[in-house]
Hints:
With 288 residues, this protein is mainly alpha-helical. The chain is built from eleven helices and no strands.
Amino acid sequence: MTATALALVLTAAVLHSGWNALAKRGRDQLSFLWWAITVATVLATPISVPMLMRTGVPAAARPFIAATIAIHVIYFFTLGRAYRAGDFSVVYPVSRGLGVALVPMLAAVFFDERPSALGAVGVALVVAGIVALNMASRSAKGPGRGLRDMGPGVWWALATGLTIAGYSLVDKGGVARLHPVPYIQLLFLGMSVLLLPIVLADPNPLRREWTANWRTIIPAAVMTLGAYLLVLFAFQLSKAAYVVATREVSIVLSALIGSLWFREGGLLGRLAGAAVVLAGVACVALAR
């Protein structure tokens, strides 16, 4: 992975863990996420619209845009459900980790991307570290707890992980056909529109969320936009498996946020798992 791609992805990881933590603190997570992506859409408009007016949307990019919008709608819905039902330090590693595990296999099929030996070791270490983080999360809850005992939060997190793998591959192909700035503008606009009927089914939480948390929603929108835009640029510079794996350094931050900010316990076990994740990211960073 090039130094530029590594810097982009690591910065995105910090922003990503930040906006996820803010979303977890929301009163109604789905309403919070809708406001965040809608505000992000408005923020991207002054830059993206002039670009779209000059270039339009290439026909080759349109299927990718439609697909990523559909997958992201499911992603935000399942993510909101997962944060409503489960601990941050469980939901985040499980959902992100499943994406890391699936993307290399799917990228080999769809993009003929073959990680080097060092890159494959790095991805494997990231997955192993995520498993260790999840085990630390279960230990913090008490002995003898399995996935079934963790409740619906884990299952929603697993569903979220499937969507992460899906949109990562779609976006890898999409930004090869359209510049990342208008691409993310169309993505966020599409998500906002398609999620609107869902959040308006009960408009009271939507109004309450903005009234109570608009000071948090605005920075979350900035972080959401920045984090994903950086990843889209990184997709243009490096293999999808490397980008997705390196991005999951955010899991290290989620371990600290969950233990210290949300007081979910298990700090030492989480740090051990985080160290394995970091070792994997280091391998991916050195791989070609």
